[in-house]
Amino acid sequence: MVNITRAADLLEVGANGAGWEAPLGTTSPGDPAVQPLSPWLPLGAVSEDGLTQGFSEDSQSFTPWGFTSPIRTTITSSLRTFKLTVWETGRTTVQSLQYRIPVVDLAPVSGLTTFAETASPTPDRRSFWFAVFDGDFQRGFFVPEGEITERSDVAHKQDSVAGYEWTITAYPDESGNTVYHADRVPATDAYTGS
């Protein structure tokens, strides 16, 4: 009989987590167990859908004449995204990202915050840090150059929380990397074949 190897402590249930943003060029917090400090600003409460790490890839296969199976496949596009819905729509950090406005421009005057949305938005790249927690299982994702590339409609109604649903696209940094991982996970036992 085959012995099937399983380890419950190597499963992740994204029970909790958070996100932060900072200006481009900000260094990674580096460890999901460490509290991000200024200039990192929190995104606040995230909906129960949590964080979705997206992978989108296209490839081109090459099949020689007379064959029915390819002899080579090349990746032609490789995109990494993060999707989440933030609920604290009154948080200036969140408003800044939603409307592509610097946080300093959202300071209230006599209790009133005013701003205008431009018809010609410019790129708004920032650094992002996401952390996912499941007890001792902790994952950190550092996006050195990211930008919100999709925004959903926002419903303002009595029976639901208004939220900003975003898809953040990760762009390559100077080293050609899009996402840096920093994980605290249990050690995988050595496989003994039994």
Summarize this structure briefly.
This protein has one helix at 92-99, and strands at residues 16-22, 41-42, 52-62, 72-86, 126-134, 137-151, 164-170, 180-184. The chain is mainly beta and 194 residues long.
Structural class given helices, strands, pairing? Answer: mainly beta
Tell me the overall shape.
globular
How would you state the average pLDDT, rounded? 92
The largest pleated sheet is described as: 8 strands, antiparallel
> If helices are DSSP runs of H or I spanning 4 or more residues, what is the number of helices?
1
List keywords for this structure.
194 residues, mainly beta, eight-stranded antiparallel sheet, 1 helix, 8 strands
Plain-language structure description:
- The chain is mainly β.
- The protein has one helix spanning 92-99; strands at residues 16-22, 41-42, 52-62, 72-86, 126-134, 137-151, 164-170, 180-184.
- Strands 1, 2, 3, 4, 5, 6, 7 and 8 form an eight-stranded antiparallel β-sheet that branches.
- A hairpin with a 2-residue loop joins strand 5 and strand 6.
- It starts with 15 loop residues before the first strand and ends in a 10-residue tail after the last strand.
- 20% of the residues are buried.
- The model has no long low-confidence stretch (mean pLDDT 92).
